[in-house]
Amino acid sequence: MSDEAQTPQSSSLNRSLGYGPALAVLFVGCSLAYAGFRYARAAEDSSLASRFGRACEARAATIESALDSRLLALDAIYAYVDSRDSVDQNGLEHFAAPLFERVAEVEALAWLPRVAGGDRVRFEETLSAEQGDALVVTNLDANGRANQAGTQDEFYPIASTFPVEPNRTLIGLNMLSEPSRARALRRALTSGEAAATGPLPSLVARDDEAEAQPGPVLTVFVPIFDAYARRGRRPRGAVMGVFRVSDMIREALRHFSEDITVRVYDVTTPTDRRLLWAGGDAEAEAPFRRSQTLAVGGRTWLVTGDAGPDYLREGHTGSPWSVLLGGVLASVLLCAYVSIGIRRARLIDNLARDLDRMSREDPLTGIANRRVFDLRLRREWQQSTRNGAPLSLLMIDIDHFKRFNDSLGHQAGDACLRQVAQVLGTTAARSTDLPARYGGEEFAVVLPTTDEGGAEQVAKTILYRVRRLEVAHPDSATAPYVTISIGVATMVATAAKAESELIKAADRALYRAKKQGRDRVVVAVPDDTLDSAS
Asked: What pLDDT shows up at residue 7?
């Protein structure tokens, strides 16, 4: 069918209205929802990291405070010893008893006088008389057993301790005989400040199997100097404190939850990192980790905190997922809304196309109707006026069609009209040709840029093909089958004429074909006038 019977705008609109926009809306919406989820999760993780940092600082500060409070015990013993010329077991026990009740992690508090090599015998006699047993100064051998000390320039033996039990076996033990403790003691005497050892095994023997492998202990020495020495500092001795590291840290952190893994290391020697304590649910790849160093008696402790799984589970809320699910749901709803809009637009476009086709097509035959014929003929007439090309018109009438309907019925007549229209459409097949139903049983064919000879040839082909249909016509006076009559007119349009002149000429030629016996093609002549009736 010609372009007058189509709506290019509607067709292109229908082709463009795929579901791409709806899918694009869904993709963009879901992308934004995911971006919102990531932003909300990042903000939540940032808040968790900040809170985690504060929690780790609080734990490190608590451990540091616990260390300070335990070292106060040594300060108290230091003040007690420094204020007296001599210290005996009963005096130390009387002074330390209330102090030890408040600091339960202290394994031992002891007084270590400096004993010169020449004063050793007198010291052993005094110690034996005070303790009620025969006691001597002892050294630890390589296997950790206490044996009577040999000759030395000086000793720092334990003269009195609290609690007495189970530390009684340590009385008389020379602290210079154990290398790790000896280094710390020498450092304290040299610097004049408290000095601590690294984590060491306890010197106290345990009878209980549950305590056969006690945790490491921290030994701290506080030096005491002779206040009456005229020149330099002359050591008088040292106060020793032995602290159970695990018990001390556990007691310090008892009020904290275990959702953060806390580890305490001695890192005084960078190449010798020694674990003092670990607690909490450890995680191999902790997303959050903080560390802080503490100064303990000339040594460096590192307190680290790792976020355990419980911390992350409790810290994460459902807000990011709400953002994601809400965004996806909104995107799906918007996509559905756009899809419905597209479907409605398609429906409206299809309806518009159907209405346009109905307004341009003859509903019975499917070829152009009279309105389209008039518009097209006017346009081709104007085109012929501009380019001077010939314009031809065929007027076609089915012979004795009223008799056909009366004898065979209107359904047969409608079928006959459709068959003739099909012949017109297949014969006038150029894109510029226009077959149309002119009215009733009459048809017309517009043939642009076609001269008289070409138009006559098209008309004869149509005549021949209708005959070949051999549609039976029992009441025809012309032939036993359906025939047609065709009038042909050709003109070159001018501004002085109208397209109606071409219609009149073709109609007159058609009239002459009927008068000459029908079933024929007649070409209009210039001097003919329209004075006939059908």
From this structure: 45
**Hey, is 220 helix, strand or coil?**
strand
Query: Strand 115-116 relative to strand 154-155: parallel, antiparallel, unpaired?
Result: antiparallel
Closest alpha carbon to 177 in 216, 147, 204, 222: 147
Separation of alpha carbons 416 and 330, rounded Å? 59
Q: Report angle CA 124, 127, 130 to the nearest 5 degrees.
A: 150
Residue 298 has pLDDT above 90, yes or no: no
Among 211, 236, 213, CA closest to 225: 236
Secondary structure class of 18 (helix, strand, coil): coil
Alpha-carbon 358 to chain mean position: 53
Q: Compute the C-alpha angle 271/273/274, nearest 5°.
A: 145
How far is Cα 97 from Cα 425, in angstroms, rounded to an integer? 123
The token pair at 410 is 């209107």
Q: What is the predicted pLDDT for the residue at 205?
A: 64
pLDDT, tens digit, 9 for 90 and up, residues 30-57: 888 888 888 888 888 788 888 888 888 9
| Rounded Cα distance, 187 and 170, in Å | 22
pLDDT in tens, 419-442: 999 999 999 888 899 999 998 899
CA 73, 78, 81, 87 dihedral sign is positive
d(CA 435, CA 370): 10
DSSP assigned state of 264: E
Residue 114 and residue 121: Cα distance in Å, rounded?
Answer: 13
In degrees, rounded to 5, the angle at the alpha carbon of residue 202 between the alpha carbons of residues 65 and 218 is 25
Q: Which residue has the tokens 């001077």?
A: 388
Distances (CA, A) of 60 to 133, 216, 280: 45, 19, 14
For the record, the structure tokens of 473 come out as 């016509």
Q: Answer for the pair 265, 299: CB distance below 8 angstroms, yes or no.
A: no
Q: What pLDDT score does 473 carry?
A: 92
Average of per-residue pLDDT across 511-519: 93
Pairing of strands 434-439, 521-523: unpaired
Check: CB of residue 78 under 8 Å from CB of residue 268: no
Instruction: Indicate if the pLDDT at residue 20 is higher than 90.
Output: no
Task: Judge contact between 468 and 485, C-beta under 8 A.
Answer: no
d(CA 128, CA 236): 21
CA-nearest of 115, 140, 117 to 126 is: 115
Assess contact for 194 and 203: CB atoms under 8 A: no
Q: Kindly tell me the sign of the dihedral angle through the C-alpha atoms of 97, 101, 102, 105.
A: positive
- For 368, the token pair is 């152009």
pLDDT at 10 over 50: no
